[in-house]
Amino acid sequence: MSDAHTQFAEDERIKSRSKFREAMIRPELGGIIGTIAVFTMFIIFAGDSGMFNSQGVLNWSQISAQFMIIAVGACLLMIAGEFDLSVGSMIGFTGMLIAIFSVTLGWPVWLAILVTFVLAMAIGALNGFIVVRTGLPSFIVTLAFLFILRGFAIYLPQTIERKTIIGGVADAAEGDWLAALFGGKILTGLFQWLGDNGWIAVFERGTRKGQPVVDGLPMLIVWAILLVIVGHIILTKTRFGNWIFAAGGDAEAARNSGVPVNRVKILMFMFTAFCATVFATCQVMEFGGAGSDRGLLKEFEAIIAVVIGGALLTGGYGSVLGAALGALIFGVVQQGLFFAGVESSLFRVFLGLILLFAVILNTYIRRVITGER
Amino acid sequence: MTSIFKTFLLATTVAAAPMMLATIASAEGEKYILVSHAPDSDSWWNTIKNGIALAGEQMNVEVEYRNPPTGDLADMARIIEQAAASGPNGIITTLSDYDVLSGPIRAAVDSGVDVIIMNSGTPEQAREVGALMYVGQPEYDAGHAAGLRAKSDGVGSFLCVNHYISSPSSTERCQGFADGLGIELGDQMIDSGQDPAEIKNRVLAYLNTNPETDAILTLGPTSADPTMLALEENGMAGDIYFGTFDLGEEIVKGLKSGVINWGIDQQPFLQAYLPVVVLTNYHRYGVLPGNNINSGPGFVTKDGLEKVEEFAGEYR
Question: Do B166 and A291 touch (CB under 8 A)?
Answer without folding.
Answer: yes
